[in-house]
Amino acid sequence: MDGDWEEVCRIQLPPSGVLSDHFQAPVRAFDTSQELFWTGDELGRVKSFYGLDGHRYTSYKAGQDPIRQFLFHDKGVISVGGRSVHMASRRGLYIWHITHEDMKDLRCMSYTSRGTSEILVAGLQDQMFVIDVDKGIITKQVPSSDHFKIMKRSRYICAATPSGSVHILDCINFNVVKVWQAHTALINDMDAQSKIRFAADYNNPVEFADSDENLFSSEYNWYAILSRKSFVCWPSHMIFEVGAPPVKVESSYISSPKVFDADKAPASIQAPKFLSEKAREAVNDATSERGTIALYMNVEIKYSKFGVDDFDFGFYNKTPYSGLETHISNSYANALLQFDEIYNPYQKFALQHTATSCVNDVCLLCEMGFLFDMLEKAAGTVCQATNLLKTFGHYPEAKNLGLLEENSHGGVSLTTMLQTMNRFFLDRIPNEYKAFLLVQIFLSVSKQSVDNAWKQNLDTSLLYADENKRVIDKTHRPLSPDGEKPTEGTIIALDTEFVSIRQPEIEDTIVDYLTSYSGISPGDLDPRQSRHNLVSLKIAYKKLWILLNLGCKFVGHGLKTDFRVINIQIPKTHVIDTADLFFIPAKQRKLGLAFLAWYLFREDIQVETHDSIEDARTALRLWKKWEEWVAAEENGGAPVEDLLMEVYRVGQASSFRPPGFNARKEREREREREGKDISRTNTPPGVVKTEVRVLGT
């Protein structure tokens, strides 16, 4: 054996049963995902071994026929026998087992063009089988006039026949693309990589004719004496002592040699370190030795110019379970909230209460229902618990118990705070909602009947309520439950404006509403004279949540930011964002709503103020224009991509702004320079938290 290699161990395969003899393992393979070595014997038993010593790991029965081949999958190991195909986890647990009346002598298998989700199984028979690995079912039978013994896949599927020919099969439809005779006898093994194929065979012996001429044969005696005297008997004058060759020294060391005193002690002895320094270094050394495992290190979210939506959370979370962001206050409760979402009775009860007509601004159970529904719809996307944690902070008991981070006592561990918070939830919710006990008893009788009850009994009366009935000249018209009832697929044009006001900020008179940016004019936030439908954050949020669960689709411009601010998770199938429709990723610039309205409709919007109703209507018109472009392209019109390129070309020439934009900004700057007095308005009574304007069609 080569000096660079050495034998690690020898594994004696145990018998397949107590009374059975030792059988040869014709199939052996190394696992491509784990450090395991797999064998399959003639009795259909599969065994695996791990470690340098070859310890036995698993052993299970895959079928009654000899094992022919292994394929390794992320979820387990696939083995093929003569009349069956078996898949089990690496721990030996059964996943699926497939048999068929046409499976008579299976020999080989290979992955198809669908990757590891589909395999093609063949053998010395006239039928090939296509199997869905995820479902464990036969999806297709492919007739074959040739019999195959070995299969390997690269760009194509290479299949070897018993006669020594190699067939190239298409990975999609499994048709034969090329056939050639690789060897004259049986092919023993084969491999494929990119465009190269290797095959090892048993060639037939080649016969040579006998020759009549006698060839010369020289005899050689290994014991012939070449010299009468050995070297040890030579005279001394013929023996010379030759030393080792001189060591080669690099020229750079010879030109500048390093000089030091080898026979002298150091000039001084280094002073000892202080005890405090030694203790500090000991702590640092212990920390550095332990370290933090890479999988448990803190992940820093890096924002690009497109915001948090451009961060790839899927790189760190490939599960269907959504995580909660941790950059907000009281985020230590994320683990408890995620556990409550998985706990089925807790989740269903919260959703059942949220589906009622509750409009209490400080309702902990409603916020839990909103959060649980958001985590379920997100399906792995990151979410926030902002609204629930803000509502949780309004309870005096939470402050007294030190559950808020800003009011927590020093030295209290997060584990203790989580336990206290859990007891607070369990004590608070039953005291406020007497129906909890009844629902729990009902759940213990039949959980299945409660699972979808909240969706079937969703209270939609909030959509038809008018919060400002006394105003005659309104900017809105309430929906009619008779002819305007939202259903699945209803298009809702949406634009939101958020005005968050805290009590210390409204003690003084409001000087400027910044109407050109906020769209709020004097009197809009005053319930006594406003023409708008002023609602709280809870009512606005619940309206959106009801529309979402009714199956409505939302149309708007830049809705990702709006949904993130209001903290609601809308599936992508229910969002039509015109900012994404009229966008070319290669340009790395999204077009503004005002510019698109000017270019496509020759209209100027947002001239004097920022009107949400106007923006929602414009976004709806943009979506309809997009549908016209797509329909025209399908009927032979101009491609949508060419139309978008023209929009970007005009935008670059005008700096992506309408022609009147610069003049409007100049007028605003002139008014600021003139120092005109800004009209002062008394502070509106009450605290208006949020205004959301929704336009439905």
Written overview of the protein:
This protein is of the alpha+beta class and 697 residues long. The chain has three domains: 27-181, Methylamine Dehydrogenase, Chain H (7 Propeller); 300-438 and 450-459, Cathepsin B, Chain A (Alpha-Beta Complex), CATH 3.90.70; 479-676 and 686-691, 2-Layer Sandwich (Nucleotidyltransferase, domain 5), CATH 3.30.420. The protein is built from 19 helices and 22 strands. The strands form six sheets. A four-stranded antiparallel sheet has the order 1-2-3-4, with no helix packed on it. A four-stranded antiparallel sheet has the order 5-6-7-8, with no helix packed on it. It is elongated, with a radius of gyration of 39 Å. Mean pLDDT is 77; it is low at 435-450, 501-507 and 676-697.
What can be said about this structure in brief?
Helices cover 28% and strands 18% of the residues.
Task: Summarize the SSE layout with pairings.
Blueprint: E1 27-30, E2 36-40, E3 45-50, E4 55-61, E5 69-72, E6 77-80, E7 84-88, E8 94-99, E9 106-112, E10 115-123, E11 127-132, E12 137-143, E13 150-153, E14 157-160, E15 165-169, E16 176-181, E17 187-193, E18 196-201, H1 251-255, H2 275-290, H3 334-342, H4 344-354, H5 364-378, H6 386-392, H7 396-400, H8 414-432, H9 435-445, H10 448-451, H11 453-456, E19 491-497, H12 515-518, H13 537-549, E20 553-556, H14 559-566, E21 575-577, H15 578-581, H16 593-601, H17 612-634, H18 640-653, H19 661-674, E22 691-696
Parallel strand pairs: 19-20, 20-21
Antiparallel strand pairs: 1-2, 2-3, 3-4, 5-6, 6-7, 7-8, 9-10, 10-11, 11-12, 13-14, 14-15, 15-16, 17-18, 19-22
Helix pairs in contact: 3-5, 4-5, 5-6, 16-17
